[in-house]
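Practice problem: predict the structure.
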Amino acid sequence: MNNIYLWLIWFPLVFGSFALFEGFALKHPDRQWTLSRLMAYVGAKFPLSIAILSMLFGGLLVHFYWHFCPDFAIQGG
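Answer:
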């Protein structure tokens, strides 16, 4: 639990950088790539890439939340 502060710093930096890059891209849409445009381009060139990214994201979700059990859940029921 010692690295919780690193995670609390890292997450806002990731989301903030994403928001910054998307803001720049939307401000100048003729010259910049948004995430949507990038995914459309990569999906057009390599259609299987979207499925692979979806499986990767789904695998991470299952990994993180498969054994999730909140404190108020009934055990064994």
